[in-house]
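Chain A, query sequence.
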Amino acid sequence: MLVTHDHSGEPALSPSLEQRAVGAYVGLAVGDALGATTEFLTPREIREKHGIHDRILGGGWLRLKAGQVTDDTEMSLALGESILAHGGVEDAAVAEAFSQWMRTKPIDIGNTVRRGIVHYRSTGETAVAMNEFDAGNGACMRSLPIALFYCDALHEERVQASRAQSHITHNNPLADAGTETLVEMVVSALKGLEKSLLETMALSLVSRFPLYRFDKRRMENPSGYIVETLRAVFQAFFSNDSYQDILIDLVNRGGDADTTGAIAGMLAGAYYGEERIPHHWRKSLDIKTMLACRDQALGLLAQGRQIDSTQY
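Chain A, predicted structure.
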């Protein structure tokens, strides 16, 4: 069995695939809840108000309860429920799941997401037209169920599934590339690959789309533009050595902090496993959300692997 070292330097057994899957989903929700407090603040405003923001407090511009999550986690769960119900990504079923989610009057919903769902409702079409201005992070933030369900599938199947769910609201080559790279990095983290290999994957994205370059100036106050989102996530993930340090680094940058937190949370959670997510953060998460994330993580992983085993 592989042996790693925890943050204190003590030897620790490498997490199992199931522990990494739960870590990814719980990590997403924790990052979402932690980052929501500092969303749309600047780093200076965060320092003045919180010093270093490192607790799940709620509040923020959405005035959340402590442990409450936003659309990042809610849309992921809606996507995951659709996948489990239909044995994979069926674009009409996913579009309807997003539409039903919007009917619940969510506390937060992005403009591009709203437009895409309204387009589906009015036309029945499950893909919006390609738009050079729709390179937001709204499809990327909800992509974890793709990585979990299609963990053992062919790369091409993951790409097809990723684009099917993405294009309901976001149809943009730059956003597609970033989302697909994140999905592949999460899959690799679930399988226990080293960070250096994950970095190679991120650098491959940069080689194809130089806008994603993340080795220069620190990305402060990242917006909802997927390039800024992933640059910040990559910087934090590759320059810190624990789930906790990665998330604290990111949410104190402000900007679209719930989404940078959610995306980094799923990647770091997959890499480090659930037990490396600080207990006080997990305990602070809304209990229904925590249980839904755990159950869906294991369900997606198990059902996806069962389907793959009958196909190959």
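The chain has a mean pLDDT of 94. The chain has one domain: 14-311.
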